[in-house]
Amino acid sequence: MSESSKPHSLPSPHRPLRNMLALVLLSMATGCCFALGLWQLERAAERDALHQAIEHGRQQAPLTLSAFSAAADFLPWRPATAQGRWSPEHTVLLQNRNLHGQPGYWVATPLLLTPPAPPANRHDAVSAGSAEPDAIGHGDGAPDFLGRGPAVSEAAVLVLRGWLPRDMQAGGAAPDIPAEHGIMRVSGELHSHVPRIFELWEWAGGESSHLPDALPQTGSNIPQVQNLDLAAYARATGLNLLP
Hints:
The chain is an alpha/beta fold. The protein is about 25% helix and about 20% strand. About 10% of the residues are buried.
């Protein structure tokens, strides 16, 4: 009696579906890896561009800021000096700026720049921007000349003056800011914007911190914000910020 042959196993009806799902998952994983690779290349290019911009700015000659400084001279990271007096009533505190792991604030105060000296003679007055000099008569009948130079409002530059620790026992009250009076001379690097940090509650649909509509405020409370937009700050203060 011959042995009966073993039955052949039939293909599972679910195998093609599993193979298709495996191919789809493999394609998705490949696409994700490819996208991550492109993102890393873009990030590397951004870091290289930032490094080049920093090096280019720091290699420039120091710029002395004034109301007549040209906008083209305001290169990010360029060394700069300014002379003027603080406007403490327009101070703003930037929250959650940690230093060595300790929570604190950046102190942002505008420096009202010292106006440039008036022209010394007629030639300087004309070259300063007057189309024609105005004649001012004196008692002897001989006219002197005063140039009609461009009317320039008092210029200001926002300065990140430094860092102050946050008193965790004070319930978020603003720290005491040391008063500095008189003409000050500051040195630093130019920036096109105030460095930002991520606001989690804004991403989650909450309300982000914002400046008051007008500064200075009544009372002694110093505004506290997470991030500071220079255009909004200029509108609130009415200051002629450079550039």
